[in-house]
Design goal:
Order of helices and strands: EEHEHEHEHEEHEEHEEHEEHHEHH
Helix content: 25-40%
CATH superfamily: NAD(P)-binding Rossmann-like Domain
Number of domains: 1
Radius of gyration: 20 Å
Number of strands: 14
Shape: globular
Length: about 350
């Protein structure tokens, strides 16, 4: 089912874009970006009962031209609704995919909806005559399972599925993106595909739901992380990720390409904590200042599944390049500090952190 709203003052463009998973973190920022640019936007949710909630969240986040936003019901695990959702759309941003880094009991809970959902969206888009699909992949599809050396990761790299440290989420993103490219080669027809591969996405919270790598910020602020492991995190602002999706949608040279997104070099967990303390004052009182020795993490991982995902990347400073996004798309990201501060300030403002 599709519920449409049309502007009474006319639209700035007649092009309609479908954004899948409209209640999600990255998808929400993509919707804001597209509406501000004057596009007609349709987004998928599992039930139209959720529409008022999603609209309220987007409005709170600064949505403009909300009359140009419409909703459709569709689920990654079912064919129902996708043909109607993509109907009349020039572009599709396929952002929806389950997110659950770390240990999970049944890997198929992530892999099946990610891979099969991507194929459902691509088939429906091709059949509807969509010009281009932009699929949200992840750095998890690039850099996991490789030796820890000085290699600079680019869009040419793929995660080694049976390599060390590869979790179910990494497998789901890798398998989904590979399946998408294979579909395009065999059955894509005239439709074009580009993929976006962001590193750890941080930034202003949508509603009261903590998503993506914002969990790292919340755990520091609310005292769940009493000490810092020796980990280095590559960061990108969610607003820059949304901008890159739209650039990949419209830039002629983006067709058939992958784009790795990072604001810059990796940042130590301890450095992230120092930024929060410098900008959030009393709200950052529980952010730790000390680090935990690697040997303690390794021993703890023998007894606790929660520590196991940390072990493979201890003291590993991954190197990566976003030169392709900058050159082909003209993408100009802000710095990682902006994303960290925006995430922390939004959590405090929404009452998600008790000061």
């Amino acid at each position: 089912m599709v519920r449409e709203f049309r502007s009474s003052i006319g639209n700035m463009t007649s092009q309609r874009v479908l954004v899948t998973g409209g209640s999600g973190f990255i998808a929400g920022h993509c919707i804001l970006h597209l509406l501000a640019a004057g596009y007609l936007v349709r987004t998928t949710i599992r039930s139209l009962d959720r529409e008022p909630v999603v609209r309220a969240i987007l409005t709170e986040a600064g949505m403009v031209h909300g009359e140009n936003l419409s909703f459709a019901t569709a689920d990654l695990l079912s064919d129902a609704g996708w043909a109607e959702a993509v109907g009349g759309c020039e572009y599709v941003l396929h952002v929806a995919s389950p997110v659950h880094p770390g240990h999970i009991d049944n890997e198929d809970d992530l892999i099946v909806p990610a891979r099969d959902g991507a194929l459902r969206v691509l088939r429906a888009a091709r059949d509807a005559g969509v010009a281009r699909v932009v699929l949200t992949s992840a750095f998890h599809a690039v850099s996991w399972g490789h030796p820890h050396d000085d290699h600079v990761f680019t869009e040419q790299d793929w995660t080694v599925l049976d390599g060390p440290g590869v979790d179910a989420y990494g497998k789901s993103k890798t398998l989904a993106e590979r399946a998408a490219w294979q579909f395009m080669a065999a059955e894509g027809g005239a439709m074009q595909l580009a993929t976006i591969l962001p590193v750890a996405v941080m930034g202003s919270v949508m509603g009261k739901q903590i998503s993506g790598s914002n969990h790292i910020i919340k755990r520091m602020l609310d005292g769940q992380m009493p000490v810092f492991p020796h980990l280095w995190i590559p960061i990108v602002d969610v607003r820059d990720v949304a901008a890159a999706h739209v650039l990949a949608m419209t830039t002629p040279g983006a067709a058939g390409e992958r784009f790795l997104l990072s604001s810059g070099p990796v940042m130590a967990m301890k450095e992230i904590g120092a930024i929060l303390k410098a900008h959030l004052g009393d709200a950052a009182a529980r952010v730790p200042t000390r680090s935990i020795p690697n040997i303690v993490v390794r021993v703890s991982a023998l007894f606790s599944a929660g520590f196991q995902p940390l072990v493979p990347d201890l003291d590993y400073k991954k190197k990566m390049s976003s030169d392709k996004a900058r050159t082909v798309l003209g993408w100009r990201p802000t710095n990682a500090e902006d994303a960290i501060v925006a995430a922390g300030e939004s959590m405090v403002a929404k009452g998600l952190i008790v000061v």
